[in-house]
Amino acid sequence: MKHSSLIGIVATTLIVMTDAHTTFTTLFVNDVSQGDGTCVRMSMDPQTCSYPIASISSDDMACGASGSQPVAFTCPASTGGKLSFEWREWADAEQPGAIDISHKGPCAVYAKQVQNMTTDSAAGPGWIKLWDEGYDDTSGKWCTEKLIDNNGLMSIDLPEFLSSGYWLIRPELLALHEADKGDPQFYTGCAQVYIQNGSPAPLNVPAEYSVSIPGYVKSTDPGLTFNIYSPKFPYPMPGPKVYQPAESASKAVLASASSKVSQQSKGVIPSNYLIKNANWVGVEVPDYSTEDGCWKSSEACFAQAKECYDSAPPTGSANCHVWENKCDGISAACNAGNFNGPPNKGQKLQSKGPAPPPEIPAAVNARRSRKLRIRRAKALDVRLL
Ligand SMILES: *[C@@H]1O[C@H](CO)[C@@H](O)[C@H](O)[C@H]1NC(C)=O
Ligand SMILES: [Cu+2]
User: Fold this and answer.
1) Would you state the pLDDT for residue 60?
2) Which of 92, 134, 283, 295 has the fewest C-beta atoms lying within 10 Å of its C-beta?
3) How many other CB atoms are there within 10 angstroms of residue 261's CB atom?
4) Above pLDDT 70, what percent of the chain?
5) 18 ligand 1 Cβ < 6 A
6) Residue 60 to residue 66: CA distance in whole angstroms
7) Pocket test for ligand 1, best of 116, 168, 265 (most atoms within 8 A of CB)
8) Residue 288: closest CA among 343, 362, 224
9) How many angstroms is it from 185 CA to the middle of ligand 2?
10) Above 60 in pLDDT, residue 100?
11) Where along the chain do its domains lie?
């Protein structure tokens, strides 16, 4: 059987991480977890996935190490809807924590529309900033400290002006604890998202708001050399200004926004899966009624298990193991001479994984987008009359 080779694969995923910083692990859409690693580009190396980006001029600045590689699934979302990004010190939540308290600094969320999630480059031009926050005078907290207060989660509402189609949504943290020594530490990853209800026309962003990643920050930027131990506030946010369409442009978007849902064709998560692990799903093996068919389906099951382990990001392979148990059950039935199956055909398997966060924070940009939503609703009303 393929079984013995699987044990080797499992063992390599159990390496204990030592020097943990932080990783973007999990996307939530409208407060619903999409599953650890699902629709998320993160570093695939469990030992270094939480490390800061090695160089600010590296292409890894776009979506992190391994970030040039697309993942199989793209999660659907709507403008006006809410995205939350979960950060963990240990990607698989083996130990608790979002980021070490020493890692003080700003956060931001960037976005880039791609025509083709598989072939278009994450690194390069076309990025806009949707939101940022540095140091909050009122609470006396850095954005990363608020992230810790929020159990590692930060949330934004997707602005109404985003066009329908495939988007890379990129949360970013910048830890400044070594910035005074010339080592600003960036952490990032990307969520692959399909926006269903935006404007059909691509967003026309004025040049001042559209940046290239890498290239959008320089090591000499005051926001990257800022001394948090003897701070001179206000903190100068690095990168471009947050994109806000001009009134006329936003009216045009609202007018063209269609109430019709735009159909996602690629990266759709199949609905008939029995269990999911990051960007892999297990689907039921073929029916059988002979000894030969039994072993064939058992093999097909283990082949899916191997795909699961091979594609599992550092958030773990707990559900690959659950799937593998199902395969063991098929093999056992074959061995026992029960050649009618599969057993428990089509039955969903119980997902394993870390407990969900106790609470999901409100969107940091909620007020602005609520206003836009009201305006959009008015625009739709006008059309309906
Ligand atoms: C992206 O490109 C690949 C490879 O050329 C192609 O198979 C796929 O259909 C394209 N996806 C979209 C959404 O056009
Ligand atoms: Cu660190």
Assistant:
1) 98
2) 283
3) 11
4) 87
5) no
6) 7
7) 116
8) 343
9) 7
10) yes
11) 17-269, 275-335
Query: pLDDT, tens digit, for every residue of 255-292?
Result: 666 566 789 999 999 999 999 999 999 999 999 999 99
Whether 314 and 49 have beta carbons less than 8 Å apart is answered as yes
Which residues are 82's β-sheet partners? 157
Ligand 2 centroid to 83 CA: how many Å? 25
Select from 3.10.180.10, 2.70.50.70, 3.40.630.30, 3.40.50.150 the CATH code of 17-269. Answer: 2.70.50.70
CA of 51 to the centre of ligand 2 (A): 6
- Ligand number nearest to the C-alpha of 70: 1
Q: 234, exposed or middle or buried, with CB in 10 Å at 0-12, 13-18, 19+?
A: exposed
Distance 196 CA to ligand 2 centre (A): 36
> How far apart are alpha carbons 298 and 329 in whole angstroms?
9
Distance CA 16, CA 263 (A): 42
Residue 151 tokens, joined: 């159990």
